[in-house]
TrEMBL record:
UniProt key word Hydrolase: yes
Name of protein: Class A beta-lactamase-related serine hydrolase
Transmembrane segments: none
Superkingdom of origin: Bacteria
Keywords: Hydrolase, Signal
Protein family according to the UniProt entry: Belongs to the beta-lactamase family.
UniProt signal peptide: 1-20
Organism classification: Bacteria, Pseudomonadati, Bacteroidota, Flavobacteriia, Flavobacteriales
InterPro entries documented for this protein: Beta-lactam-related, Beta-lactam/transpept-like, Beta-lactamase-like_AB/R
């Protein structure tokens, strides 16, 4: 009996390993085919299934480089930063620093003076699920002012002017994607913990998970990719500033898989916080939203995902808690269609 059980365990181990290898080969084939058709776009992909990690990458760090992109190459993860911020918000709830139903009024810096129509109206969860109704930053105007560093013109004074001049909430309770909302969440975290956002994310995510290639203020490293706009022109990485919590973290496939591993583990602090963010906080005929997460559900699967686009790079992160897998796709060109098409193809032909 003991021999039979041992033999069965070995068979299961071999079967699981073969299944994982089969998935990784299929994903690699899809990524390789895409690169052969689009050789100017470098790609790095990390995948985790049942705690086993797989990576594939194609392309060079930049068009002049001979160095191959790999799992350690640094990209802008852009708005994927928002799920790190929402995880920190959920951790603050677990730490009894805030409640998701708290109004934002008492958590904002003193320079903010909310109009009477806005007082005791906007909850922290409203900001995190993009339904606060607040006006947002005008990126079109910012790009005109500085095409390489558009967010450089966003300051704390800019933010307070936008908020303090707001007298009515537009479509409060309806989904409208908001960069300013996640910028405010960063400031709420700072008030809750008495530290700046950089210190908070390092203490509660980066250091505990040993994500040594997840960068904030200093990203002048040798393994950094070059970003390219849709026309192929070089695009600078965004410098760190007050909008950091909405989209300025830099990372790589290896570190983001480490993060996914923690998210999928219900016993970790980050995993417990992630489950808070996965609750549905907004729903209409087009979408379901958690805190910073899009939720996609069919008869057999619930998938949590978040995309990110800087001026020169595109990315997407996605995971299925029930089936215990997650994936990160990083491109060194701003190309939202390509990153979405890759995820759709991988999901439809491999993961389902």
């Amino acid at each position: 009996m003991k021999t039979s059980l041992t033999f069965s365990a070995v068979l299961l181990l071999i079967s699981t390993f073969s299944f994982g290898q089969d998935i990784s080969k299929k994903i690699d084939s899809i990524i390789k085919d895409n690169y052969q058709k689009n050789p100017d776009v470098g790609i790095s992909v990390g995948f985790i299934k049942n705690n086993e990690e797989y990576y594939t990458a194609y392309g060079k760090l930049n068009k002049e480089s001979q160095i191959d992109i790999n799992k350690n190459s640094i990209f802008e993860i852009a708005s994927i930063t928002k799920i790190l911020t929402s995880n920190l918000i959920a951790q603050a709830v677990i730490d009894n620093k805030i409640n998701l139903d708290d109004y934002i009024d008492n958590y904002l810096p003193s320079a903010y003076v909310l109009h009477e129509n806005l007082k005791n109206k906007i909850k922290i969860s409203d900001l995190a699920s993009h339904q606060s109704g607040l006006p947002d930053i005008d990126f079109g105007k910012l790009i005109e002012l500085n095409p390489q560093q558009p967010v450089s013109n966003v300051t704390e004074e800019t933010l307070t002017t936008i908020i303090n001049n707001c007298t009515e909430l537009k479509d409060y309770g309806k989904y409208r994607y908001s960069t300013i909302g996640y910028t405010l969440l960063g400031q709420i975290l700072e008030k809750a913990y008495g530290k700046n956002y950089d210190e908070i994310i390092r203490k509660k995510i980066v250091k505990p998970l040993q994500m040594t290639n997840t960068l904030t203020k200093d990203f002048n490293v040798k393994n950094r990719t070059t970003g390219y706009n849709p026309n192929g022109g070089i695009q600078e990485f965004f410098n760190w500033n007050v909008t950091a919590s909405a989209g300025l973290v830099k990372s790589n496939a290896s570190d983001m898989v480490t993060y996914l591993k923690a998210v999928l583990n219900k016993e970790t602090t980050i995993g417990k916080a992630a489950m808070v963010t996965e609750k549905i906080f907004y729903k209409d005929e087009k979408r379901e939203m958690g805190l910073g997460l899009n939720i996609s559900t069919d008869d057999q699967n619930t998938i949590y995902l978040k995309s990110g686009d800087s001026m020169g790079q595109s990315s997407i992160i996605c995971y299925n808690r029930t089936k215990n897998w997650g994936i990160i796709i990083l491109l060194n060109q701003r190309n939202s269609k390509m990153r979405q098409d890759l995820l759709n193809k991988i999901n439809d032909t491999v993961l389902k």
